[in-house]
Each structure stands twice: as C-alpha cells, then as structure tokens.
Amino acid sequence: MSTERMPNPAVLIPEAMEALMALNKAVAGAGVDGKLLALSHLRTSQINGCGPCVAGGVHQAQQHGATADQVHAVAAWRETPWFSDEERAALALTEAVTRLADRPDAVPDQVWDLAAKHFDQKELAALLLNIAITNAFNRLNVSTRQQAGKW
C-alpha cells in the first residue's frame, strides 16, 4: 500500500474546503433525492479509484436508504434489478460525465435525453454539480494518495 503524499489540498487551504462544502450543501438542497446523489458519488468514485470517496459514498448511500444490494452492485447497475429507471438514468449520466475522454461524443444525446426525461433542469444541474464535485474530490484524493478510513 502506498503512503499519503501530503494532506488533501483542500484541507491545507481551508477556504477551498469551505467552498467545496458550500457547493455540496447547495447540491444537497436542490431537490434531488439524497440516495440518488450518494449512488452517483459512489459510482464516480469507483470509476476514479478513490478509496476515501468510495468508503464515504457507501456510508452516505446507506444513510440515505440505499439497500445493501444497491451499494454492493452499483458498479454493475445495468445487470441488476435493484435500481429504478430514475437511478439508472442518473448512473448513466454519471458514467458519461466522469469518463469524458472515453468516446468522441462524451455525453451522447441518448444518455442526456434519458436523464432529462427523469429530471428537470434544476435537478440536472444538481446532478451535474454532484458529479463534478465528486470528480474534483477524487482527483485531489487520488493524486495525493489519500487512504480510506483516515478521517
């Protein structure tokens, strides 16, 4: 196991952490179900290999009512019966936005249109901001080798 390179940069610059936490608070208050936001956070963090955020995402999802099946199978959500159509649309958008460089049309119309069928513009904004902030935390944690369980 590799060792931490430095503390999380947002911890070293408290104003940055305050800004990130304010963004999280705004997203949480925008009307999107907390379980859905947590599942999106968890899936993003799995894709990016961010141990602290995966661990935190599992805890957060459970706090918001995600079942054990959902938490354990979110990486394979397409192949399971445990996710609603709304959750599936959010997870598809989550994967596309997190993997922008994986295809020429990063967020295909099919993915966007399905999400827009389930979420209004404010909810889509919250979901996109949730994905973006999770990717930001993932990049800070992974590049500095933050370890899960060191809170």
From TrEMBL:
GO terms for molecular function: peroxiredoxin activity. Transmembrane segments: none annotated. SUPFAM superfamilies: AhpD-like (SSF69118). It comes from the Bacteria. Residues 14-95 form the Carboxymuconolactone decarboxylase-like domain. InterPro entries: AhpD-like, AhpD_core, CMD-like. NCBIfam families: ahpD_dom. PANTHER family: 4-CARBOXYMUCONOLACTONE DECARBOXYLASE FAMILY PROTEIN (AFU_ORTHOLOGUE AFUA_6G11590), BLL7811 PROTEIN. This is Alkyl hydroperoxide reductase AhpD. The lineage of its organism: Bacteria, Bacillati, Actinomycetota, Actinomycetes, Micromonosporales.
